[in-house]
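Q: How do we represent a protein-ligand complex in a form that can be generated token by token?
A: Start from the inputs.
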Amino acid sequence: MTARTFTRRDAGLMFLAATGALAATPFGRARAQALEGTQVIVIGAGIAGLGAARSLKNQGAEVIVLEGKPHIGGRLLTDWSMGAPFEVGAGWIHGPEQANPSRQLADAVGAEYVVTDDENAVYFHANGDEFGEDDYEEMSDGWESVVEHIDETFERNDPRSLLKAIRAYDSDLLDDPRVMWAFSAWTEFSKGGPIEDLSAILFNADKAFDTPDVVVTTGYDKILGPLAVDLDIRLSHTVTEVSYEKGDGVAVETDKGTFEADYCICTVPLGVLKAEKIAFDPPLPQRYRQSIDRLGFGSVTKLALKFDEPFWDVETQYFGIVTEPKGRWNYWLNYRTFSDENILLGLSVGAYAPVADKMTDAEMTEDGLDVLRQVWGDDVGTPTQVLATHWATDPYSLGAYAYPRPGNSRSDYDGLARAVEDCLFLAGEHTIFDYAGTTHGAYMSGLRAAEAVIEAES
Ligand SMILES: Cc1cc2nc3c(=O)[nH]c(=O)nc-3n(C[C@H](O)[C@H](O)[C@H](O)COP(=O)(O)OP(=O)(O)OC[C@H]3O[C@@H](n4cnc5c(N)ncnc54)[C@H](O)[C@@H]3O)c2cc1C
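Then emit the structure tokens for the protein with flavin-adenine dinucleotide bound:
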């Protein structure tokens, strides 16, 4: 996701203090071997799983992490094959103030950052003409007015989608491609779902840390290094079944054998839970299953195109392009603003992202180039290298990040984190409403699950 200029800011530190998460960070003071002799299986070696495992191991537990892929990281993974970091999943540390746990992890590995400046952007109409001042103002005013309208007039449990809220405020906005661009490139990107299916009252109700977003020029996934040190991580172990019984612990079946422990923390993405790729025995209680089914899980598609020469203004950080349909490669990040590489990173969001995910890399490249030609015509060169993501079809994710659908409530997220029979805990970005869809949220959920194991032991 990119900068959340148009979302609410809040004091995230309060959350951390309230949950005691800071005290449990791997860099904080560990409780003296409180968990000696306790066995825990963590499913998934993303930032939630690694955070939970690190915290538990620091406190004396015997931990095994089972990861289906042949590498750690999950949705936090950096590909260096283009010479600059291509972030396959998370690209920004959102609100990298000191209290942000992802910032703390990044500082601990000496990460280097560049602030991405939302103001350093040029926007284009579908015909390739640049936006004038008025266009920009109408676009942001339209976005802000709808948000204000929702805040001021919608009841707390209003079941309408964001699209319906726009219509209720001023249906003409639906025909204004500039405003619809903003709802797509800003909101659909930030929330990971289409405005047709986003909850009007919840899409902007989460929390955020402060200070402008940064990209990590030394590679985002390096922040996982210290979490993974000395952990027993079994890569290429795909979990197929989790059996659990109060007082009796858990048995976790994988394609490479069965593992047993006192507790299990399951951090697989919401898409994997939705698709029932893992069988639970007994089945998860109904209210968990209902929340899993109810919550939204969309996609965000990234396409990095590397060229010999830039045909764009290398000083401009972002290019916004009005496209049809609206989520199609409508926002581009210029790598020249933080690296020497001539790379443009395009984003497809909303309803278009799952469509893009199903394309081959060659089809996706043509589709992306087509959009660039709207603006730069024949100046658009032939890419020398291409990297593309397909999160919706990745069997270990089946989407990008959780989003609130009409009729959802905060407890659809937070309720998933409640202990099941005192031995099974779910964690991951989809279990923490206030910080869902972020690396820091996922990490905090992992620490929270580790705390829950400690509580269950005491
Ligand atoms: C395209 C994209 C852009 C994003 N942009 C940002 C951003 O800019 N900033 C930000 O803060 N966040 C961003 N996010 C969100 C962020 O990446 C996630 O919230 C976070 O990384 C999720 O961590 P997690 O540990 O909950 O899940 P994951 O990282 O997905 O970890 C779950 C692990 O479980 C494994 N697994 C799945 N099924 C099985 C199985 N059956 N057996 C064993 N293992 C299994 C998976 O392989 C994976 O490693 C983005 C995500 C995507 C996809």
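DSSP finds 13 helices and 22 strands in the chain. The radius of gyration is 22 Å.
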